[in-house]
Structures are given as C-alpha cells and as structure tokens.
C-alpha cells in the first residue's frame, strides 16, 4: 500500500447534518442543561415536602392559568415554527427557513413579554418565601434560556437571510433548533410543576 | 440540488505513505501556531493547552501544598498558636478547594488533553476552540478565587461549604460569595471540557478503533466527563442558590423562612461523590495503560477493567448519601446507601486484580514510572478499604468527620491521583519534551514521596480512630494525638521534599535529559508512533487501527478480534486543517472535519465571563452587564458560519 | 479508675486493647485517648465497636494481602532493568491472568456481602433501645457550646444546664438534638456515634452507659472559629447518685450571708446577666450557658478548661484569649468586681 491512491468511497467534508461535531456538542449541552433543570425541580419538590405552614405551597393559592396556558401554547408553537424552518432548509427552501426562524423568534419574544406580565401579576416577590424564591428562580432560569434562545434564533435568521445555508449546509440551523426545542420541552416540566400539579389538587 | 452540486461538498481522500515528500512541511504550515502574542493567546493546539493545564494544575498543587505545610506546623503539637482560627480556617478551606477543584481534576484534563488525540489517532480534540475556552476559564476561576484569598476573603467553611454557616447571617464577609461564584465559573470550564472529551471519544477515534480497542485512559476520562455533564449542574446550582440567598434575599437555605440546610448537602454530594470518581478514574486509566508497558504484556482483563470503570461511575451516582449518614435520615434509607457504598468496591477490585495479574504474568521493567504505578496499587487498596469502612453506616457514625476520613481522602487523592500523575510524568515526559527524566533522581523522588506520604498520612487513620475531629485549629494535650500529629507533620514535609525532587528532575532533565526518540519505552499505543515532541499536526496521515496495541503487532499471535493496524500510511488530509471523524461504535470513516484556526474568541469569552462573575461578586451590576454583553458578542463572532470550516453553502476549499 | 466523683472529673478512659494495638504509635506511658472509639461502654456502643474492629481487621487483612501480592508479583519475576530509550524489549501475551480477576473479585464479593449483612444487623440493633427510655434530654448545639435541658412530664423538674450531661447508668436515654444556629454534631464516642444537630429539624439519638464514668464528647461538624473548642462531658452515675444530682440541680441558690458573695451576685447580674442565667436570681440571659450550679461542673467554656478558680478568672478576664472569636465578650470589670464575681460563682454549688 505504499503507493498514493484515492479510496473508493467519497466522504462529506465539513459540518454535515448530525455528523457535525457542533451537533454532538449541543446534544451534551442539552444533557447538562436538562440536568440543571432536574436539580432545580428536585430543589422545589424537596422543599415542598418539608414541614411548612399550610397554604404556602403554592403561595397565594392555585396559580391561575389565564396567562400561563396561552403562554405555553405560544412557546410550543414556536418549536413548530423552528421545525418547519428545519424541514424547509433540508429541501433547500431558504425563504421559508428565514420565515420559520423569524416567526419562532417573535413567538419567543411574546412568551417573554407575557411571562413578564405573569411575574408582575404575582402578589409576592423573590424574597417573600421559599415558594416565591423557587418560583422566580426556576421560571427565571427558564426565562434566561428563552432569551438566549431568542438571540440564537435571530442570529440564525440573520445568517439564513444572508444565504449561508442550503440543503447540505444547515448544521447551524439544526444545532440552534435542538437548543430551542429543548428550551420548549423543559418548560412543559416547569409548567406542570408550578401550574398543573396544584390545579389537580396536589398542594400543601 | 443536483448530484453534481452535492459533490462539491464531498471528496475521496488520498491514501499515501506518511513519508510522502513535502507532506510534513505542508501540514506544519497549516497546523503550527503562529509565533507571537496572538499565537500564545489564540492557540487551539491540544498539546499546548494540555501542557498549560498540567503546568497550571501543578502550580496550584504547590500552592495547596504550601498551605497544608503551614497549618501542619500549627498541628504539630497541642495548643500551638502559630495561626489564628480565622487564618487556619481559610488555609484549610483553600487547601481543600485548591487540591480538589484546581489541581486534581485539571491535572487529569491536562494529560487527557495532551494525550487523547495522540492515543486516538486524531489531529486535535473535536472542538479545539472549546478546549482553549475550557483552559482559559479554568485559569481565570483559579485566579478569581486566589485573588479573593489574597485580599483576605478566602473561603472559610471547608470545601463542601455547609449552610447555614455559609449563610450571610453567620458568615458576613464576601468570602463565600467569591467562593460560590468561582466554583460556578470553574464548573463552566469543566462542563465544556467534558463535552469536548465525550464528543472526541465518540467521533474522533482513528478508523478501526472500535470500542474494544480504546486505551483505558480514554475510558477513564470519558466516564469522568460523562459524569461531570450530569453532576456539575448540581453543585453550580447549589452555589448559585446560596449566592441568591446571600445577595438577593431568597430562602433556599434560610431556616427561619422554611429553607433547608440538607438541601445544600444533597445537591453538593450528588455532585461531590461522582466528582471523587471523576478525579481518580482517568488516573486509574493512566496506570492501566502505563503499567502493562513496563510489564511487557498487554493489560490483563481489558474488557473487565473498561466495564468496571463505567460501572464504578454508574454506582457512584447512587452513593452520595454516605456523606450524610449522621444527618438523621431514617435507617431504612441509610441501609440502601450503605450497601451501595460497599458494593461499589467490586468494580475497583476488578482493576486491582487486573493490575496485579498484569505484573504477575509479565516481566516487570524497574523504571521510576513502574514504581509509581506499582506502589499505587497498594495505596489504592488502602484508600479503598478505608472507604469501604466508612460505607458501613454504624462504623461511619464513628469515623465520619474525624481524621480517619482525612486519611481516607488523602489516600484517595494522593494515592490514586498524585502517584499515578507522578508516574505518568515519568512515562510521558519523554513524549512531551523529547527528553528522558533522570532515573537515578527518579528513584530518590519515588522513595521520598512514598515514605513521606505513608509516614505523613497513615498515622491519620490512627488519630482518627483515637477520635481526633477534622477541621480543628488546635487540640489540647492529653488526647493521645500529640505524637501522631508530630509524625504526620514530619511526614508531610518529607513528602513535600519528594515533590520538590520531582520538580527539580523536571527542570534539570528538560534542559539536560537524554534524548528520548519516538518510543523510548517500546510502548504499544499510537502516541509512541510519532516523534517526541509530536509535530503540530500529530499524524502526517491518519492511521488505521486493528488492535489495542498497534506498535506491538506481530510479537504474539493475534486474537480473534484483531487485525493489523496500518500506521505507515493512511488518509492524507492536507487541504486546510482537517481530520477524520468516525462512527461512534465501530469507528468507520464518516466525515472529513474542517478544524478551526487559532482564535482569540476563547480567551475573550473567558475574560468576559470572569468580568461578569466579578461584577456579581462585587455587586457592580454595570460590570456584570458589560461582561454578559461581551459574552454575547463574542459568541456571535465565534459561531459565525465559516466557509473554511465547511459551515456555509459556499464550498470549503476541497 | 473511673472516678466520676473526682473534682476535676477529667479522669480518662484507658483503652486497654487499643493501647496495646497502638502502643508503637504512642510511646508515652500515660497514654490515653478520651475520644477513641475502639472501646465502647454501653448497649449501643458494643455492637458498633465489634463491627468497627471487624471491618478494621478485614481492611488491614486486605491491605496486607494486596501488598504481599504486589510485592510477590514484582519479585517473583525479578524484572528487567531499563537499558536505554528506544531499546526493544521482549514482549509477550501469556494467556493466563484473567483467572486472577474472577478469583479476586469473587472472594472480595463474599467478604463484602458478609460486611453488608453484618452492617445491616448492627444498624437494626442500634436503631432503637431495647427498652423504653425513662426520660429525654434535649441538647442544642450552639456556637460554641452545648445547651442541655432535662425534660420531664412534671414541668417543675425541667431545668437547663450546659456542656455537662449527667446520666444514670444501665438505662437507655433518648436525646432530642436541636440545631441552635449552624450545624453541629453530637458525639460521645465511647457511648454512641454521631448525630448532627441541624437547624430546622429535630434529630433523635439514644445512648446508654453500662458503668459510671466520665465520657468526653465533642462537636464534629465544622461550625466556625471555635469548632476546636466545643467539647462536652457525659457523666454516668448510679441511678441513686443521678437522682440526687437532678434534685440538687433544681434547687435555687441559698440566700447569701457572705458580703462578697452578695456583692458578686449584683455585679454578676449587671455584667453577665444579660447573657447568662442563674436560676432564682436577676441574671436571666439566654444567649450563653445557664450557670446555675456552675461549681458542680468539671469544666468551663465547653470542656475547654478544667473548672478551677484560676481558670474562671482567666476565662472571664480574657475570653478572646482563651477562645478567639467566641461570643463571650470581656466584661469591663475592676479587679474588685472580678474578685466579687469569682466569690459568687464559687458559691454556685
């Protein structure tokens, strides 16, 4: 085999779909972020099961869904928009890619705005009680992730508009999309913990 | 898009001999870090980063060691008044924090950073800029915490920092704030480093290096890294919640308002115990790879040892409560964690007997590295059985928080980390520098460290059994501890002399050592196939791997799963910085990766993050705001899709 | 040997077997280790001590066996010397070796299983006392001393003391453990292992002493500047002696006739009374230890100093010199007032 020759099969070059190292890195970033939220929710349940004054978990009674439910639907819709964008770039449709990302980023911003009103609506603030500390810290961690995600979506939208991506080169989109889907998925856990569980009567 | 268009994004690499004329020069041109300040600050070469990790971690080892020597003087006899209680408390906390967080983990990251691409047959880590970022954040967090210490605000609540003593009400100064933020910052470094190791392990092994052909060092580090990915958020969160409690008035640990001190202990030890394994498994891996070289035979029980490594960590996530046996948890739950803590000995026993069998059935070559590795087996056993004793709940109710546990943690950290690391330095220093360490000085070095260590730390078991509590800044006479402590202090100084001899050997041999050549020990793994020190691109062509010991092939009949490796030739990847990625299980070529050039983004990001944390620590919110904005801008620049990295529609060169 | 009625009360337990085992490490003829846990002195301690010795012996045996195997492995082939860098060395792959792992791990697993069963057995044995405890003692860990309250159904018999816990022999006693500020750990090695005192939760433990004696205890969870000086004494007495002690503790100080003591009582109330209590007097502070019947205690400042007049003066006139960082501040006293207070304290029998 001393001679120089080419191997028979061709190999793709560069950042390709799920073979991009960045995509693998994002998978494990999501693992570590998911662990963070798991530990946050562990802290919530740990403190919730300790002896405390009745009616303090949740503080102020069962939280209302009037803002949280539409907010949840908006956030989940934004994931659909990203998935739609991902679908279209795999078919080389760059225009729908830009639109999908822009819609998702807008929905993300609306989520943040509604969440702001949800916070303002609360009768308690961060230092009021252990419950309030947990509520604002956990939803605050999530809010921070949404804000980071919105920046990512706008950056991707900007790069997409510049025509950087096509049917082969879309690793950035899938990496950013993975992050956004995670941010949305983890909200479901938080939403259930803080809104649905007390609604079902599990409160103390 | 047509098939022809798609072809712009793929190619069939050329196969050529490694000695192909002009190839080495071309690759050197591509891969070498440019000289000057930009190269120093911007390099992404894993070998440079690895050495920086090792040197920095060693500097912290010395700092932590000096701290220990100072307070060992205070404990040399009863009722000594060399240090005030506050000085003692900061010194012992800094010592623990330094050794556990700034030395023990990073030193192993350093070796793995340097060695991984070389033993796996790649040209760099999977994410070279992330690698640089990991180092720079580590350095910044170390300086961050040491700066606080030098201003008199070192942490003073022990490395595990129990609340409520760490709460504002009992610890009013900024000490704990800086510790909390420093550990969160360091956690970012460890996390990105761990992600890099895992992705490299899964994707950057040379073609043919299937899961059963990976050196144990890589198994150890990947296991530790995977654990870090899941465990570090626990400690980062704990410290962040504590910081919120101290600065923004939350009540996670605030008892009068319903907070729980034990929440801290759960979060801390859910991280803490896996971390203990994270700082020994890679070191055990170094022994598993290094010892057989000096026994002139492959490791006995490779598969069992690799699986044992992973099993240890899996079980390691289920034993955190054994740090909390005395907190009043119900006996029925203690019994579970007790049994788990005893059963975790089994995978360690696998490794111990594999090492002994390797020596027994091999032909030992008496080098300094061999002596460190072989003596490690005994130290590992001592640290292991004392751990087994603490796993038994009723016994632990006596042992815990006495010097017995101090002895245990030092046999674990020195016995299972420092001794393998010292052996690894003797083993791989020739690869790092092209020079041999002096073997005669090496003997002195080994025996001084070995005798000093056992003299200093074995008596701690006895002072523990005689009831000496840990973390006391002085003790009265008449407790039966005087002689033991005097011996311990004396031994600690002898051990320090041993470490000094190691440093002297490194400094002297670096200048005057004998030339090493590519493979001074006649060792079997890939890193020894390239020159010492290795060229910036590591491998002129990508090797193909057919067994666990490519450089020993042909010396004994091959086993069923072995074929011949091909190192003399392979894929020529010379159109820019390139390396090959392979499939995760069987390591078949999957994609030609375009690797990044040197970049200033990592160091800028590290500095911006440090500014953010410094702003939080000083409550200078404007600085925190600037820092986080700079982080965002830096990431935007860093992640900008690059044609040269094959990230954009515009085809890469090739 | 166990002179619990000794005025200094610091007579130390002599760990006979341990002393022989440890003799090489403690050449001193007066060897004594009051906090050792290799000897137990009660129903809770006995099974734990046996288990401790058991696992210690297993551990020591394993270390010896492994050290012998490693040495044997090295010496039986007497290895090659390293010649020169790059020199090719003989390499082989002997087939045997794997059996070491299966044999070694198999044997280890049996020993480990045995240890687990023994552990569970002891855990169950010591979880609860075999008979009901006649009363409960409440111990609160505080920076850096122990508040002790004797609980009884008859509230007239409830009283508080500090740093010295008297118990009757031969009966198990329940302890309620409370975290007063930060986490401390309650530990009397000769009688019982550790249980933390954690703010926000009440832990329980129990212990029992078979024979009269003075057993030293110590805080073992790091709790700040004076963690080193947070000791206590557990004094086990015959049930009769204990009953007498309790009765005595309930008494108020006798009306004083001595002029210096009377003056000291007033000075004490003024300078010390906002932190310390002497029952039946104006001094009713709750921040520091209750000092009623101070002179019945063997030590002061949480077992830091023997309770002698000289040490009382030293402690009162320079608390920060004795326990730097302690919350006891130096009172502004003339030497006359100090002498009066000392005379008063000496009257608190």
What would you say about this model in short?
The complex is a heterotrimer of chains A (204), B (654) and C (349). By secondary structure, chain A is an all-alpha fold.
Q: Top keywords for this entry?
A:
heterotrimer, A: about 200 residues, mainly alpha, 5 helices, 2 strands, about 70% helix, elongated, B: about 650 residues, three-stranded antiparallel β-sheet, two-stranded antiparallel sheet, 20 helices, globular
How would you describe this structure to a colleague?
The complex is a heterotrimer of chains A (204), B (654) and C (349). Chain A is an all-alpha fold and 204 residues long. Chain A contains 5 helices and 2 strands. In chain A, helix 1 (21-48) runs parallel beside helix 5 and helix 2 runs antiparallel to helix 5 (171-199). Chain A is elongated. Chain A starts with a strand and ends in a 5-residue tail after the last helix. Chain B is built from 20 helices and 7 strands. Chain B is mainly alpha-helical. In chain B, the strands form 2 sheets. Chain B has a 3-stranded antiparallel beta sheet with strand order 2-5-4, with no helix packed on it. Chain B has a two-stranded antiparallel ribbon with strand order 6-7. In chain B, strand 6 (578-582) and strand 7 (589-594) form a beta hairpin. Chain C has 349 residues and is α+β, with helices and mostly antiparallel strands. Chain C has helices spanning 16-22, 45-77, 98-127, 239-250, 259-271, 309-317, 319-322, 335-346, and strands spanning 80-81, 136-142, 145-151, 159-162, 164-168, 173-179, 184-188, 192-197, 202-207, 213-218, 231-237, 299-300, 305-306. In chain C, a hairpin with a 3-residue loop joins strand 7 and strand 8 (192-197). The chains are: A mainly alpha (204), B mainly alpha (654), C alpha+beta (349). At the A-B interface, strand 1, strand 2, helix 1 and helix 4 of A face strand 1, strand 2, helix 7, helix 8 and helix 9 of B.
